[in-house]
Every structure is written in C-alpha cells, then in structure tokens.
Automatic annotation (TrEMBL):
It comes from Olea europaea subsp. europaea. This is Rab3 GTPase-activating non-catalytic subunit. It comes from the Eukaryota. SUPFAM superfamilies: WD40 repeat-like. Residues 28-427 form the Rab3-GAP regulatory subunit N-terminal domain.
Length: 463
C-alpha cells in the first residue's frame, strides 16, 4: 500500500544551517541520541548539546512550508563549562494571544531557559540540581464536559517532578512582550547584553516533588487532579497524580500534595516554629540592643519538596521503562519498555488495560481520527467536524519494522498500517495554551507529522 495514500506532503525544510547538526549524513535525524526536536505549527526547533536552531517557514501555495522563505535563528545558550552543562530538553510554549510562541529549554544543571522566536533570552531559573530530562506541556480546556481548565508545564528530572502553572508563565511573558513593544529591539538583537538582563529575571512560582522512592525515573508525567486520601479533612488544596517509569520500577504512581507538610505535626510546626523564632529574635534584640546587620547575603536554598505519597509500582526485572506518552486528557498513558512491549495504562484506575509485544525502540503518539466517516479529499475538511466525530487512537512507530500503525483506543482494532522510511521520526505540535471555552464545532484534532531526515520532507497523516 502506497504511503502517499495516507499522508499529505507539506514541503521541505532543508537549509544549510542544519549541517551544523549533522544534516546531509544518512540517518542523522535518528542516530544521534543528543539531537532534540520540538515541533510547532510554523516552526521546528532542533538542538544538540550546545546549539539550538529554530527553523521558521512561510506557507506556500499548498499550505505547507516554503523552503525559499525559511528563516533560521541560531541560539548558543550561555552554559557553564565548569559543570560541563549542556542542553537536555526543548519544548515549544504556544499561546493564542499576543505572547505568540516561545521556546523552553532545559539544561543538565537543572536550569529552565525561555527564548523568544528571535533567540532572545527571556527567562532563566534554576528548578533543582540535576538534569532536566523532559519538558511536558499539557492542559485540559474548559468545554461542555470540563467545568474548569488546567494548563501546566511539567519539568521531569531523575526522581524529581516540578510543576509550573501555565498562567504564571503567560503573565510573565505578557509583561516581557509589553516591555519590548515600546522598544525598537528588532534592529539591535545582537547588541543585547544578556548578563545585564539576567539580573531582572523574576522567579516563577512552582511546585516540586521527590518521586525517587522506587529509584530515579527516566520519564514521568502529571496525569491530572485526583481526590485526597481517605480519612483526611477536606481542604482547598489540590492533589495530583503522577506516573513515573524507570529502571528499578517499570511503572510507579504517586499522589502529589500542594502542601509541604505531610502530617498534623508538620502543619503545627510550620505555623508555630516561625512565630516562636520571631518572638525569640525580637526579645533578644530588646536585651542585647543589637543593631548589627548580617555581613553575608543569605544563601539561596533549593526549594523544599512538597508531599508525595506512593500509590503503586510495578517491578519486573529486567524490564525497564523507557518512554511515556500521555493522552490529551491524561486518562491514558502509553509506556514502552526495554523488552519491546507497549503498555497502555489507565492512569485513573492505575491498571494496564492493553499490551503490545514486539515493538523494540518504538515511539508512540496519541492522535484523533475520523471513524466510520467519509473523509473528504481536502486536508482541511476536518474543520467541519465536531469532537464527538473523532476517536482517540495511538500511533506506534516501529523503526525496526519500518512501519507506523494506528490503533483505536482503548481496545479497538488496528485502523492503519503504513510504511515509514528509515531515518524518519513522528512528531506532534505542542499543546496550545488557551483558557477560553471551546465548543464542539471548533474542535481541531490531534495530528501526527512525519519528518524524514534524509529527504528533509515533512508530511502529516491524513484522518
């Protein structure tokens, strides 16, 4: 069966700048473990250990990228040579308002960097000591089935999960863009002093949890809000469910608490100790009449961990968890392991509901396809359908088999099998932040894109 029956070619993203990342050699896109890729609607970000390339494209006559109008931005982050710091994660942050898109970058020393489309450093902040393994952007939009919306950026580190509120990041970016709108900085991008701008960075609030009870994780995700534990007084704080995978435990789950105190004693101490210390300090000043100021600045300590309670774990030596992919609403997770299996996990019941075997080095992405519908020839025909017309599916790229399969969730049949050339990757645009209510008539389905590194062709899987 011809591959062209199932995909629509969007164009070619070839450019001379990609040679800095190894382009031109066969298999450069898949053979380099340090090469990172993140896809946006009109941009692709490539990164190795020290260099980031942002490739923008303009739409051609067929709606795809026009190689003659491609625009490239090179970024070389200021990394610590003493710590041998390098780029370890990249992900787009896409907004529907004037903020537009920015690129989030994680480093091996635990720093979160945010760059504009022009390569300007907007924000820099330490999350925790350790390597940032992955940056996850996820949200549930308010619609007819969801009363509230939740948008977040999740930072995954070995044994550690951090969560940033999407609204906090958006507000920070809005202030930054409003400040730059009054300046003609487009003509002097190369003259910006990044060292001076770092002093003006405001610290973004975030939550931090230690999830290393079953060993350091290789990947993790916050799946959503969950109810509080039994026999606990109801409060206004939220509890989140986190799923981790790793070498020691293939799958483990935790209940994450917003409160840093795990017990009643901890809550009492957190209230009483600061007040007691303040009283003693004031009393001491009255006695000693001490007006001396500290000669040293207080050290900036790492943010303390909030409460993380283990829920369950699956240990099956020598099986190791490798990759985790979360469904849009967070109720399903596809997990690949070192034995070539794919586990479909129900993140609410915390049980495996489906298993595939014989898929070594597989990569999975959730997508939406029209089921029992006559698809139109136009690539934009799906804009006339509502959310209920689509079915959640799992696309499985098996590079050793050279195929991509699409399976209907949760227990449905295989809907599609198509060849996938060697040297290709399947990609998906990142979640788009939008707190406004969405209607069923305006639903835009999840899509899967193909990037062939050897031919530089990008295409999209038809619905």
């Amino acid at each position: 069966m011809s591959r062209r029956l199932h995909t629509t070619d969007l164009g070619c993203i070839a450019c001379d700048a990609l040679t800095d990342l190894g382009a031109g050699k066969e298999g450069w896109l898949v053979d380099n473990p340090d090469l990172l890729i993140s896809l946006d609607t009109h941009s692709v970000a490539f990164a190795n250990r020290s260099l980031i390339l942002i490739l923008h494209w303009s739409s051609s006559n067929n709606g795809g990228p026009d190689p003659d109008k491609n625009r490239v931005v090179k970024i070389r982050p200021d990394l610590s040579p003493i710590e041998s710091e390098y780029i370890s994660a990249v992900e787009w942050l896409v907004f529907d308002d004037e903020v537009s898109s920015v690129l989030a970058v994680g480093t091996s020393c635990g720093y979160l960097l945010i760059y504009s489309l022009h390569g300007i450093l907007i924000h820099k902040q330490i999350v925790n000591t350790g390597k940032i393994l992955k940056l996850r952007v996820r949200g549930t939009k308010r619609d007819l089935t969801e009363d509230t919306s939740s948008e977040e950026v999740c930072v995954v580190m070995p044994g550690v999960i951090a969560r940033f509120e999407g609204s906090d990041i958006q507000n920070m970016l809005q202030r930054w863009f409003q400040g730059t709108d009054s300046q003609s900085w487009n003509d002097s991008l190369d003259k910006i002093d990044l060292e001076n701008s770092e002093s003006s960075f405001t610290r973004l609030p975030y939550q931090l949890w230690n999830v290393s009870k079953y060993g350091p994780c290789s990947d993790a995700a916050i799946t959503g809000v969950m109810p509080p534990p039994l026999m606990e007084i109801q409060s206004s704080q939220h509890y989140y469910c986190a799923v981790t995978i790793g070498d020691d435990a293939v799958i483990s789950a935790f209940r994450l608490s917003e409160d840093k105190s795990r017990s009643l004693l901890g809550a009492i101490l957190s209230k009483v100790v600061p007040a007691t210390f303040s009283t003693i300090a004031s009393f001491s000043k009255l006695i000693w009449r001490s007006e001396q100021k500290p000669t040293k600045k207080p050290e900036v300590n790492t943010q303390p961990f909030a409460g993380a309670s283990p829920l369950t774990c699956l240990k099956d030596h020598p099986r190791k968890g490798e990759k985790l992919t979360l469904s849009p609403n967070g109720t399903l997770a596809a997990i690949t392991d070192s034995l070539g299996r794919i586990l479909l996990l129900d993140t609410q019941a915390l049980v495996v509901v489906r298993l595939w075997k014989g898929y070594r080095d597989a990569h999975c992405l959730f997508m939406e396809m029209l089921v029992n519908k006559d698809t139109a020839a136009s690539p934009s025909a799906y804009y006339g359908y509502s959310k209920s017309d689509y079915c959640l599916c799992l696309a499985i790229h098996a590079p050793r088999k050279g195929i991509v399969e699409v399976w209907q969730m949760r227990t449905g049949p295989r809907l599609l099998t198509m060849p996938c050339p060697r040297g290709s990757k399947i990609l998906q645009p990142t979640y788009r932040f939008n707190s406004e209510m969405t209607t069923s008539s305006s639903h835009i389905p999840l899509e899967v894109f193909f990037l062939n590194g050897d031919s530089s062709q990008i295409s999209v899987l038809k619905h």
